[in-house]
Amino acid sequence: MENYTMEGRTYRYYGQEAPLYPFGYGLSYTTFRYRDLVLSPPGLPLCANLSVSVVLENTGQRDGEEVVQLYLRWEQSSVPVPRWQLVAFRRVAVPAGQETKLSFQVVAEQRAVWTRHWHLEPGTFTLFAGGQQPAQQTRVPSEVLSTRFTVTGAARPLHSC
């Protein structure tokens, strides 16, 4: 085997073709609403971690569980990267009519790209939070919130952070 690229071999690199059963696929007996996606800080130094919070509300008549998923997208990268990358997820039980605020950390290592070694690059990123992958078509509506943030500084190897 001479071509070790993952393009066309795993759902992360399929291009425009959606996977048959994406991560988090399933049905629920209730409905959820996402709101108040907050990033801290919105402008991020190259080696810093990103704090994320989002509010999840059970808007249905029954108690339910939701798999809250965070995805990251590079707006521009020096090398090919996935359309979006899963960076965090958590299964949360929310009683009917209640809400909960969730907090996550997206560490600098999750923004690293491979070019003979792992390194971090400055630029603009989009973070998605919701009950499914971004742009996923489902029978049951599920929101996906998104917001952008900027990473500043000069590109450097990950191990130097």
From TrEMBL:
Signal peptide: none annotated. Coiled coil: none annotated. It comes from the Eukaryota. PANTHER family: BETA-GLUCOSIDASE. GO terms for molecular function: beta-glucosidase activity. This is beta-glucosidase. GO terms for biological process: carbohydrate metabolic process. Its EC number is 3.2.1.21. Residues 66-133 form the Fibronectin type III-like domain. It catalyses: Hydrolysis of terminal, non-reducing beta-D-glucosyl residues with release of beta-D-glucose. Gene3D superfamilies: Glycoside hydrolase family 3 C-terminal domain, Immunoglobulins. It holds the Pfam family Fn3-like. Belongs to the glycosyl hydrolase 3 family. Keywords: Hydrolase.
